[in-house]
Amino acid sequence: MEEVVDFIDLQWWPIFNFADVALVIGLPLLLYYRYQVERNLANG
Fold first, then answer.
1. Other C-beta atoms within 10 Å of 32: how many?
2. If we measure between CA atoms, which residue out of 30, 5, 32, 29 comes closest to residue 17?
């Protein structure tokens, strides 16, 4: 198996990759979306 390549190095921040970015941005967006949908369904 090949390993994940850490490709974003800002020198002053820990090295990260696109998968890290997708999780950090995607999970809060998903939770917010689900909250909004349930709120809209409850309010009619």
1. 10
2. 5
